[in-house]
Amino acid sequence: MESEEIRKKFLEFFEKKGHVVVPSSSLLSDDPSVLLTTAGMQQFKKYFTGELNAVTDFGSSRVTSIQKCFRTSDIEEVGDNTHLTFLEMMGNFSFGPLGSDNPRDSGVNGYFKRSAIHFAFEFLIDVLGISMDKFSVTVFEGDGEVPFDRESYDIWHKEIGINEARIRKCGRKDNFWGPTGNEGPCGPTTELYVDGIEVWNLVFNEYFCNKDKTLTKLKNQGIDTGMGFERLTAVLQGVSTIYETDIFKDSIKTIGEHAPNLSTRIKRIFADHLRSISFLVVDGVRPSNKEAGYVLRRLIRRILAYKIQYDIHGEFFLAVIEVVSRKLSDYYANLKNTKAITDILTEEKMRFEAAIRKGLKALEEKTSLDGREAFYLYETFGLPFDVIKELAPRSMANDIHYKDFELEMKKHQEVSRKGQEKKFGGHGLVLDTGELKARDEDELQRVLRLHTATHLLQQALRDVLGDSVRQAGSDITAERTRFDLHFNRKMREDEIKKVEDIVNKKIEEDLPVSYREMSRRDAERTGALHFFKQKYPDHVKVYFVGHSLDNAYSKEFCGGPHVDHTGSIKKIKIIKEEAVAAGIRRIRVALVE
């Protein structure tokens, strides 16, 4: 069975069971407890906790999705038979309140263990045609805090008819799931196996795990299931690894055509990483030295290092990216933008290729190597730890331990953090918590003026260049503001002049600057600008320029502080506009006294 047929059958099956098909959310998660989306349920966490209402938002307590997921913990394992960084998770969800829990009921009411188990069994056996004699399950055996899941056991044995010899009882490590991040919904699970391979995990969200790891009962019990799309495809296509499925077959073939002498493991790394890079880029991630941007940069550096090490030439990356696009762009339309992906790769290649070449040469010249030396190679040349470990001579590789490397990394980060705290004298500005720190009162006032001018600048840019313009970052000092925006061409002189004139006009109008505190959801409804998928708290401040929030010229999520009225800014001048990366422009603005 082809992978796209599996995808289609899954969504159609649950749609017939009363589920609303919900598109995958971005890899950049709204959940502040995680870096990237790691599970299908993350976009639905607030429906499990009762903060949001599924019937209001979706028209049903039942939804189904195939969610893009990313597992940063698996990067070093990629290349074996099973591990991926990017994967798709098929899932069906119920948020309560509960209905009859009758699997024949396809209405909008929620369901729990009975329906979830019957649905899963029916899909695997009746729809996909998996033989009963290949099928087995596990259930939670219970512990001192959570009891044995007798209900699931009895449903499998007495209602479905699974022989008791095919039902295993397992502990919390295997059959209790969640939460994602530091807190959230969680509960016992039942896992479904085909030929001894786990294909589906049904999570019964009965509890909320608090930050201190204590459990409290959820008001609305819910269902959260996850079935790895790639793993299920491997089972149904009768192959021994996910890389032999039609999901990866064309990519692996293309890699082999460009580099026929590569080992199977390295081919798989290229196939996985280029697919992952593609999804990260089209979801708005850009290479950087922190958070999701660092994950993307690490993947790119890794494949660059292997490309150099194995002396691969030609338009190798582009060829694989086009395969990924052809395979998946019908389902994920933004993958059609292969140029955005290749532009990022080209930019990073230009930035790091020379350094990586030097790093590989330095590695070859080493006579001894430990975690500290590995960190030096990483810090100086950008070589990822796992590349160092793999390419180092075997006699030295055994002396390189990740915990030693990580210790050096933490020391470096601590030095950097202390340097950031001392940055005023170097005119740094910390806005992460809404607090400004300046060397003296004069600097603080200049920073406040430029901060408010930055808000005016962003709206003026949208007025002139269109609403697709969005902020990619900013840095404000006492001398200037540096504003980065997503825009794919050089601004014309007349456009720059028009933006500058709009900002200065709003300054001349001496408009009031105020803020309102509200829930993040209410703030989003006001149309206030904010970073795409930024991790905001549940309550935020919306700063607006104008006489009311509804009719404001500019409104943004912001921690503040700002000037009280725009007239105190006096006047600004755009002093430079330049490119800093593919699709990213940088504008520098100074005050005119």
UniProtKB/TrEMBL annotation:
EC number(s) per entry: 6.1.1.7
GO BP annotations listed: alanyl-tRNA aminoacylation
InterPro entries membership: aa-tRNA-synth_II/BPL/LPL, Ala-tRNA-lgiase_IIc, Ala-tRNA-ligase_IIc_anticod-bd, Ala-tRNA-synth_IIc_core, Ala-tRNA-synth_IIc_N, Ala-tRNA_ligase, Thr/Ala-tRNA-synth_IIc_edit, tRNA_SAD
Annotated GO MF terms: alanine-tRNA ligase activity; aminoacyl-tRNA deacylase activity; ATP binding; tRNA binding
UniProt KW Protein biosynthesis keyword: yes
Domain Alanyl-transfer RNA synthetases family profile: 1-593
Family classification: Belongs to the class-II aminoacyl-tRNA synthetase family.
The protein's name: alanine--tRNA ligase
The species this protein was found in: Candidatus Harrisonbacteria bacterium RIFOXYD1_FULL_40_9
